[in-house]
Amino acid sequence: MSPMQILKRLRGRLIDLCVIIVGVSVLVFGFIRMIPGDAVAIMLGANAEVTPDRLAALRSRLGLDLPVHEQYFAWLWKVLHGDFGVSIWTGRPVIDEIGAHVWPTLQLMLMAMFSAIVLAIPLGILMARMRGARGEPYVQAGSVVGLTVPPFWLGIVMILVFSAIMPKLQMLGYVPFSKDPLGNIQRMILPAFALSLPITANLARLLRSTLLEALQQDYIRTARAKGVSARRILYRHALRNAIISFVTSVGIQAGYLLGGAIVIEQVFAIPGLGRLILGAIAERNYPLLQATILLATAAFVLVNFVVDVIYTLIDPRISE
After folding, report:
1. Which of 95, 147, 88 lies closest to 280 in space, CA to CA?
2. Distance (Å, whole) CA 107 – CA 257
3. Which residue ranges traverse the bilayer (predicted)?
4. In the chain, count of helices (H) and strands (E)?
5. How distant is the alpha carbon of residue 95 from its chain centre?
6. How many CB atoms lie within 10 A of CB 288?
7. Who's near 118: CB < 8 A, 6+ residues apart?
8. Per-residue pLDDT averaged across 78-87, rounded?
């Protein structure tokens, strides 16, 4: 493909990205309004002087007395101008609330994805090379266990085990890396491993399958007939083609990391987006919940756009 064709394709993908985000904003806004409970009633519930007039006044001040479609367009117009609103409970800008909690979650997700990729590539190659070997059933069984073990359960087990073996090890809570690098790594390594285990198993199994499929292709047989070494065939030819599907799955798994991170953060008492989202749901904090889910969805779509760009760089023929 020529550079102009590549740019045209990426421009089309950007348009698709914008359409998807707008569609998601409609769904997010509508579904949040369907959550049982009234934010205004919850906010005034502990006050003995709650009256219909006070409820109506607060609802009007928050803009919750308008029709739903008017609320949506007013909110969307502000979002397009970079204004995600203010938290109903704290009065702080929503973007500041998210910014205060995003870094622990981002670090957790990056560490989990990095460890998953680093472990999955050699494991996938090992599983492919062990096809037909006596130890293959054990390796396959281990990968199935990795897929089926819930990350939160693994996190609880690791806390119990390491607290007994290494009682001085700091495993709960969070400290910024800039303040205490060692303490930060100590607290993040276990939750990152627990979060990454199913992704590692999934990526390793996928890489094994694509490697075995690539090794059955005609060009591999030709390379063998020419006397090319098995190591060179595996790493230079088969792995290059298998890595394309691997990259695809990495992009998809990165999007699902946030869902797993929310649960892991509760297990390890990490003050990230998970705690923020759960608190916003309990408080019916509509602006905060809307902004958090919309930004998370936008990040997921953006990651897949980046994956599409990487496709083009790895093999432009994919874009044809």
Report:
1. 88
2. 12
3. 14-35, 106-126, 138-165, 185-207, 242-268, 288-314
4. 13, 0
5. 19
6. 27
7. none
8. 83
Tokens 């930060």, residue? 184
Amino acid 198 reads P
**Separation CA 199–CA 219 (nearest Å):** 31
- Residue at 63: amino acid letter: G
For 28-65, how does the pLDDT look when each residue is reduced to its tens digit (9 = 90+)?
A: 888 777 776 666 666 665 554 666 776 777 777 767 77
N- to C-terminal Cα distance for the chain? 7
**Average model confidence (pLDDT) for the chain?**
79
Q: What distances in angstroms separate CA 285 from CA 32, 78, 290, 297, one per listed residue?
A: 10, 17, 9, 18
Q: How many CB atoms lie within 10 A of CB 38?
A: 14
- The secondary structure of 40-53, three-state, reads HHHHHCCCCCCCHH
The structural domains of the chain, ordered by start, are 101-283 (1.10.3720.10)
**CA dist., res. 320 & res. 312, Å (int):** 10
Q: How many degrees, rounded to 5, is the angle at CA 89 between CA 57 and CA 280?
A: 120
Measured at the CA of 91, the angle between CA 89 and CA 95, to 5 degrees, comes to 105
Torsion angle of C-alpha atoms 295, 298, 302, 304, degrees rounded to 10:
120
CA dihedral sign of residues 62, 63, 69, 72: negative
- pLDDT tens for 204-216 read 888 888 888 877 7
**279: amino acid identity, one letter:** G
Tokens of 276: 């923020």
